[in-house]
Write a structure and sequence with these properties.
The chain is α+β, with helices and mostly antiparallel strands and 600 residues long. The chain contains 17 helices and 25 strands. The chain has 3 domains: 109 residues, Thrombin, subunit H (Beta Barrel); 293 residues, P-loop containing nucleotide triphosphate hydrolases (Rossmann fold); 137 residues, no CATH class.
């Protein structure tokens, strides 16, 4: 092995090497590239492995020849024929440096048996299979970023296909199903095709969209309910929250009498939102009248009590109000004075608009096949649909493409919170037996900047809170995240700061490049400079799952997600195409286009 130079300066994060002479530099120029590795003697038969950060040259004192200097960063060392990460061994000045040969490269990537999950090929040496520690990849949160067109969706699909045993449209686990559990928030409806195999492959894919997803409102937390129904910037916001909370709790007690003493605002049991609407409407039209020299409260039934606010709730009910100005049953004229006097008019209008919005049926009016409503006793079946337990599916795709934007955050929040609570309670049951959670889940947040942004209004509060909770606490209960985004600088910092693994494809935006570099471990700074120059499908992987920071190219997934860009010029050069506007408009209006086509 040829010596290429000697150490001039050495520190835990930087080693400066002077190349012997210009001839040596020319012979090894191909290996002197940013991101490639050098091997440096440590003096005790050990070898330090360093990554090249930059190369510079200047003229010798006599000006006759150039001198070359290579700035490197130590990333690990080889001891007893095994590679170890870290920079605990630092070479002294004058120690010799060498090019890393193929045998050393293989030793680096194959010496640790925990790193056995195939993850493509090394870009700098395509004969080397790059392998990672899958337990550390899937068990610790992953950030996967890349600009549009960099191959982000294909990379996600390939990683997940390998995890569940899909390769070249075949299911490797046809004989016996494995215990993988992956939930994908698919905001552009891309991933269904990547996990759809022929029937004989026996791979069950669980897909839920706005038409098949059942997400009853009564499972929402107090925060999610208030996000959906209450405007935070109205003057009487506090009154709306107070009365809505009372109405929800009372209605939960009405429909769940066996749990009356255990029900609170957040208890996931059935209540009737239409009755709550009636309740708020009755409060808004609460009447008072005088009779026999006394003042009474009343709604629109026969009940009347003296106008003592502490007894006010005795006369309120969940029946629909007629809104008459004369109390027909009592036969007296009434006045709103002393009640809420119409201050909930806007609140009632908003509730009415939400309840009549058919786009929100999957939340506000979900029904079972027989037409009946989901009740408290159906909680298990509702939960099973997200977890893949209705049809034993390793992969569940939540297609968010048809979800109205105003409830996107709530949808993500509610599903992720339910999955977290499931993982929490299952883990606690296992802990009582001195066992660990044996049904771990991974949630994949595709295009995460759309619902867990760094900044944003109250509309993102619910989803940020749920996903950030998983980021901070999920791993303890067998729940991990893969956060995918083309704009990492716009994603919640709290979530990215909890990621132990980073997979970055090409990033062209300078802000995103700098943001990702700042998040990466310090020993990755040099190699991270390659981010804007990565080819399609090439990625930099850094973190606990990778033995050392490496640039890798993954194979294309098969089948592929539907993420390919439309080839504009190719399509524009074809002959004019006629199309059916009727079908487009029918689908727009939620009419069943397929049935209409079948009739023809």
């Amino acid at each position: 092995m040829e010596e290429i130079g000697k150490v001039l300066e050495s520190s835990p994060d930087s080693i400066l090497i002077e190349v012997r002479d210009e001839k040596v530099f020319e012979r090894n120029k191909k290996g002197f590239q940013i991101g490639k590795y050098l091997e440096i003697s440590e003096g005790n038969l050990n070898k330090v492995v360093a990554v090249i950060q930059n190369i510079k040259s200047n003229s010798a004192d006599n000006g006759s020849e150039l001198k070359f200097f290579i700035q490197t960063q130590p990333i690990g060392y080889i001891e007893n024929d095994e590679f170890h990460r870290g920079s605990t061994l630092i070479p002294s000045p004058t120690e010799p440096a060498y090019m890393v040969d193929e045998e050393t490269i293989k030793l680096i990537y194959n010496s640790n048996k925990d790193f056995n999950f195939p993850f493509g090929k090394l870009v700098q040496n395509k004969s080397i299979d790059f392998k990672i520690d899958a337990n550390k990849l899937f068990g610790k949160h992953v950030a996967l970023v890349g600009s549009t067109g960099s191959g982000k969706s294909c990379t996600v699909a390939k990683i997940l296909q390998d995890a569940v045993g899909i390769n070249t449209q075949k299911n490797k686990n046809t004989a016996k199903q494995k215990n993988a559990h992956i939930i994908i928030f698919d905001i552009h409806s891309e991933y269904k095709s990547a996990f759809s195999l022929k029937k004989e492959e026996k791979f069950n894919l669980n897909t839920l969209d706005v038409d098949t997803l059942k997400l009853p409102y009564w499972l929402m937390s107090s925060e999610e309910l208030e996000t959906l129904f209450i405007e935070g910037n109205e003057n009487n916001h506090h009154n709306q929250v107070s009365q809505f909370k009372k109405a929800v709790i009372l209605n939960k007690e009405k429909h769940n009498p066996s749990l009356k003493d255990k029900v609170n605002y957040d208890t996931p049991v059935f209540f009737d939102i239409k009755e709550v609407f009636n309740y708020i409407q009755n409060i808004n039209s609460l009447t008072i009248f005088t009779e026999g020299g006394k003042t009474y409260f009343a709604t629109l039934d026969e009940t009347k009590i003296e106008s003592n606010p502490d007894r006010l709730w005795e006369v309120l009910n969940f029946e629909e109000s007629t809104g008459n100005s004369k109390h027909e049953k009592l036969g007296v004229k009434v006045s709103k004075a002393g009640g809420f006097n119409g201050e909930f008019d806007r609140f009632i209008s908003r509730l009415e608009t939400k309840l009549s919005d058919k786009r929100l049926n999957f939340i506000l009016n979900p029904q079972k096949k027989g037409g009946s409503f989901y009740k408290t006793e159906d909680f298990g079946d509702i939960l099973k649909q997200f977890l893949g337990y209705l049809d034993k599916a390793n992969v569940t795709i939540i297609d968010l493409s048809g979800i109205p934007f105003e409830v996107l955050s709530i949808t993500v929040s509610l599903i992720s919170r339910l999955v977290f609570d499931f993982a929490f309670h299952y883990s606690k049951i296992k802990h009582l037996k001195d066992e660990q959670n044996d049904i771990p889940f991974m949630i994949v947040c595709e295009e995460a900047h759309n619902y867990i942004p760094k900044t944003g209004g109250v509309e993102y509060k619910a989803s940020k809170k749920s996903i950030e909770r998983i980021a901070k606490e999920g791993r303890k209960y067998g729940l991990s995240l893969m956060v995918v985004s083309q704009r990492p600088s716009e994603v919640s910092e709290t979530i990215f700061s909890q990621c132990n693994n980073f997979i970055s494809l090409r990033l062209t935006n300078v802000n995103d490049q700098n943001y990702v570099k700042a998040l990466m471990p310090e020993n990755s700074n040099a190699i991270a400079d390659i981010l804007p120059n990565l080819g399609s499908g090439e990625c930099l992987i850094v973190g606990d799952a990778a033995l050392i920071p490496s640039v890798v190219k993954l194979d294309m997934p098969d089948p592929q997600p539907k993420s390919q860009s439309v080839k504009f010029q190719d399509e524009w050069q074809k002959d004019w195409k006629e199309l059916s506007f009727d079908n487009i408009i029918k689908r727009w209006k939620k009419e069943d286009v397929e049935k209409e086509e079948d009739k023809k």
